[in-house]
């Protein structure tokens, strides 16, 4: 599903479903379906071309036509889906051929919306019910994009980023530190007299508006490299690489290449050869600004000769993959709050001291929303510069930032700069990004929650056969991160993002676009409402943010998210929203809600979340009627096994089920599409056997327990292991048990080759199946053992993908073997914890754990008093990336306070002399 095309891309496949024999439609009706399908595909192709052009490049009537067709497509999909549910799902009713003919008639009327003067050759309505296929083929030519898309430009558009090349001195506030850091990166290790110095490349990466161009221009102007050849060349979003290469040559030698040199006779390859020949014996400093894709960078890089003369290249980009490809990436940071205030107040009042006291509070709110982005600060301060006496206007501006409601020339310039990243997105990512406007400002959006909702909305399109919908959605999420359009809010310990946030300025952009396209309607608690431009537009996605239940027509509602702790007594009115696909009540106060039976009437529902709602009632059996339900999130609410067993019997399309330590319900084996299951209790071999039927599982969190009568089923572990051996797609496995199940996993090792996450809470020793050869993808390992041997540490150190390791010894503390972390061990480890046993002499050899940032470990104070441990033994200086430590001092009751202080002082000293001066914390 695309933003501009609405549901149009889905309609042909849905119509073709109706050709199946079980619907028993007459031949004439089937012919109508085939013709309509072809026409829809043709219109969809046209709208995809319309979607590629920014709105200001479209004729106004074309935009209206596209909007009408999009709205019509939603209505058509609603009609088809409703028809299919009446035929296939509850309530069971036979197919009604008369109803389907009526449906086709309604579609014909809907397509009459395509009449428009803007569509020149699209004369009249598209009568798909009466025209033959030959006529449809003739009509196809009338959708030529050249005829309907481009609006004649009154004047050539000027790139608003050009001002960054020629900033005023007042706009360079706070740039010195980052400029000097970049210069240091470029010149580190330089020796003027040393031959064969490699060309050094530094890439500067960050979101649009962060000041990348301004920064590198400052570096370009200040850095004196004794390089006779210098060039500063912009590339841009859709570069003409011949022009880029030509611009580099002209910048390097204007005298030669501006007079008498004919660039027209050279193709791209010849320009590359010319540039390499020119640079082969010259030291140069070249800035390539605003690179958008890896292929463009590779071509430019090939043209810049690596002549071993110590030349420098700097590139700027919004995309992390481009920066990684270039190498030596420098992630541009937002301005500090202090510098932000200097820039903001300086442009309005001259200095902070000149700001009236009653403006301070709203100023702080505005600065928080600007988030240290220079473009946002400069834009907002320019907007307020002539309104320094009107506190009401300042509050209005503050409220508009992030809401998409602001309308001002400066705000439009900022949106235009940020929108370059938006219009560079493929159509499906535009839809996914705009969907984020449904979340409140500054909201931390959990990645899984967002992806499951994308899937429920049909935004995630089927990819390769080997990819699940969630994996594909995760790739969408990662691409938005790569393009700096969303930011990581929190990381999981395995190094993957757990949640994201959207900068207020990006939120401002997507809310504005969402409002224009009637994509999301947001009702805010302060009576502001981000509604569609036209009041006649239907509300299809609704976000309620700290507000009472609204009074509006919601019969066409497809998605609702409520961000409020209030109790909504009017929630039962949702029972009329038969088209609802997403009902997200996460975090709402449902403690006193009498019943959720109305949910059973929402036959289209794909996503239902009651997580963290304190819902105290019984789950209604009617939820089991929701045959299309994909995600059921019941996390952190108390539910009984019996109603859940009744419910899941009918949910054959379920792919995600989250509960909070609930006994595995009967009938789970029927959910053969299930990919994500947490946190279920298994207390019998029969229940364990059910898991073996869930062959699509990628994530499983299970607790193996005694049964309700307190008895341990001896065959429970065996049954669980048999099931585990069938789960060949499992990636994340968390097993909590009071039995040593890990040691018995030998027979299941072949099914665990895709594991990236493993948590085992009890085992006697390190299982032999945990080996570098069998667990190539394992990045997270948390394991509790009775004993740890030197050989165990050696094996764990060879796990090449391991980023997080937590090893803990359970039971009584005992003297264990000493171990050494060898020079090539744990190459990717970022976080490591060794608890319950004492670190030993010469723990780290040079080269061990080169990326370790966070280290937690235990020291037995007895070892110190017995002379088995001294401060130098750990060799912390061999950990070059260390940033923080936590030390557990074991058995402090057996030793004097003086000994505790002495140990702490020795370790503090080691932290002080370490190159990174890591933070250190002690626990007793």
Automatic annotation (TrEMBL):
CDD domains: RX-CC_like (cd14798)
Domain Disease resistance protein winged helix stretches: 438-510
Signal sequence range: none
GO function terms (MF aspect): nucleotide binding
GO biological process: defense response to bacterium; innate immune response-activating signaling pathway; plant-type hypersensitive response
Keywords for this protein: Coiled coil, Leucine-rich repeat, Nucleotide-binding, Plant defense, Repeat
Classification via SUPFAM superfamilies: L domain-like (SSF52058), P-loop containing nucleoside triphosphate hydrolases (SSF52540)
Family: Belongs to the disease resistance NB-LRR family.
Record-given protein name: AAA+ ATPase domain-containing protein
Lineage of producing organism: Eukaryota, Viridiplantae, Streptophyta, Embryophyta, Tracheophyta
């Amino acid at each position: 599903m695309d933003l501009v095309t609405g549901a149009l891309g889905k309609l042909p496949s849905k119509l073709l479903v109706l050709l199946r024999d079980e619907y028993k439609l007459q031949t004439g009706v089937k012919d109508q379906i085939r013709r309509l399908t072809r026409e829809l595909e043709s219109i969809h192709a046209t709208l995809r071309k319309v979607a590629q052009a920014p709105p200001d490049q479209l004729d106004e009537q074309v935009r209206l036509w596209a909007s009408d067709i999009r709205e019509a497509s939603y209505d058509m999909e609603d009609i088809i889906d409703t028809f299919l549910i009446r035929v296939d799902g509850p309530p069971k009713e036979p197919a009604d051929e008369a109803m389907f003919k009526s449906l086709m008639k309604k579609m014909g009327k809907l397509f009459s919306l395509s009449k428009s003067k803007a569509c020149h050759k699209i004369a009249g309505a598209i009568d798909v019910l009466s025209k033959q296929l030959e006529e449809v083929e003739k009509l196809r030519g009338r959708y030529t994009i050249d005829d309907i898309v481009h609006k004649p430009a009154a004047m050539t558009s000027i790139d608003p980023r050009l001002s960054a090349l020629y900033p005023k001195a007042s706009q360079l506030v706070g740039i010195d530190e980052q400029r000097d850091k970049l210069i240091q990166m470029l010149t580190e290790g330089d020796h003027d007299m040393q031959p064969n110095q490699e060309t050094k490349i530094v890439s500067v990466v960050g979101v649009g508006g962060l000041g990348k161009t301004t920064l590198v221009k400052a570096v370009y102007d200040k850095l004196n490299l004794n390089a006779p050849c210098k060039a500063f060349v912009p590339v841009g979003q859709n570069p003409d690489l011949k022009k880029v290469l030509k611009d580099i040559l002209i910048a390097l030698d204007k005298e030669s290449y501006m007079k008498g040199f004919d660039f027209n006779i050279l193709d791209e390859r010849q320009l590359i050869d010319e540039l390499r020949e020119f640079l082969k014996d010259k030291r140069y400093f070249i800035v390539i600004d605003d690179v958008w894709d890896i292929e463009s960078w590779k071509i430019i890089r090939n043209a810049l000769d690596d002549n071993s003369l110590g030349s420098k290249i700097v590139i700027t980009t919004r995309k992390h993959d481009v920066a990684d490809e270039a190498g030596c990436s420098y992630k541009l940071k937002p301005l500090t709050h202090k510098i932000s205030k200097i820039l903001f107040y300086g442009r309005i009042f001259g200095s902070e001291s000149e700001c009236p006291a009653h403006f301070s509070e709203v100023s702080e709110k505005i600065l928080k929303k600007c988030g240290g982005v220079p473009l946002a600060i400069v834009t907002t301060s320019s907007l307020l510069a002539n309104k320094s006496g009107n506190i009401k206007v300042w509050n209005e501006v503050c409220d508009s930032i992030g809401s998409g409601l602001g309308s001002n020339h400066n705000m439009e310039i900022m949106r235009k700069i940020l929108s370059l990243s938006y219009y560079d997105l493929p159509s499906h990512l535009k839809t996914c990004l705009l969907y984020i406007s449904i979340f409140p400002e500054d909201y931390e959006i959990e990645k899984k929650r967002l992806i499951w909702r994308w899937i429920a909305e049909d935004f995630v399109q089927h990819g390769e056969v080997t990819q699940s919908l969630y994996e594909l959605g995760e790739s969408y999420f990662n691409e938005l991160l790569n393009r700096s359009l969303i930011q990581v809010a929190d990381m999981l310990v395995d190094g993957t993002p757990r949640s994201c946030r959207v900068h207020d300025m990006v939120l401002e952009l997507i809310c504005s676009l969402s409002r224009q396209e009637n994509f999301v309607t947001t009702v805010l608690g302060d009576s502001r409402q981000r509604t569609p431009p036209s009041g006649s537009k239907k509300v299809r996605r609704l976000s309620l943010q700290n507000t009472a239940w609204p009074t509006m027509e919601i019969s066409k509602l497809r998605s609702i998210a409520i961000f409020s702790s209030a109790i909504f007594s009017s929630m039962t009115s949702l029972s009329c929203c038969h088209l609802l696909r997403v009902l997200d009540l996460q975090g709402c106060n449902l403690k006193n809600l009498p019943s959720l039976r109305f949910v059973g009437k929402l036959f289209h529902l794909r996503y239902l979340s009651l997580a963290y709602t304190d819902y105290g009632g019984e789950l209604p059996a009617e939820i089991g009627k929701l045959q299309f339900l994909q995600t059921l999130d019941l996390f952190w609410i108390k539910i009984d096994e019996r109603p859940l067993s009744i419910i899941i019997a009918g949910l054959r399309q379920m792919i995600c089920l989250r509960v909070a330590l609930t006994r595995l319900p009967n009938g789970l084996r029927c959910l053969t599409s299930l990919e994500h299951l947490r946190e279920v209790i298994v207390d019998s071999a029969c229940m364990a056997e059910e898991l073996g039927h869930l062959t699509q599982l990628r994530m499983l969190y299970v607790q193996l327990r005694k049964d309700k009568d307190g008895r341990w089923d001896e065959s429970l572990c065996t049954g669980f292991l048999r099931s585990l051996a069938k789960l060949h797609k499992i990636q994340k496995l968390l097993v909590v048990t009071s039995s040593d199940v890990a040691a018995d996993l030998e027979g299941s090792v072949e099914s665990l080759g895709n594991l990236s996450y493993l948590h085992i809470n009890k085992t006697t020793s390190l299982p032999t199946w945990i080996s570098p050869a069998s667990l190539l993808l394992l990045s997270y390992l948390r394991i509790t053992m009775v004993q740890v041997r030197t050989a165990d540490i050696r094996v764990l150190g060879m796990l090449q993908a391991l980023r997080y390791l937590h090893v803990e010894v359970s039971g009584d503390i005992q003297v264990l073997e000493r171990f050494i972390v060898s020079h090539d061990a744990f190459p990717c480890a970022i976080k490591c914890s060794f608890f319950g046993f004492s670190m030993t002499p010469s723990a780290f050899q040079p080269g061990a754990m080169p990326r370790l940032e966070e280290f937690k470990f235990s020291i037995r104070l007895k070892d110190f008093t017995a002379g088995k441990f001294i401060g130098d033994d750990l060799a912390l200086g061999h950990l070059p990336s260390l940033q923080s430590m936590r030390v557990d001092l074991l058995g402090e009751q057996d030793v004097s306070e003086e000994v505790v202080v002495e140990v702490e002082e020795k370790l503090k000293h080691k932290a002080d002399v370490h190159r990174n001066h890591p933070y250190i914390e002690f626990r007793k």
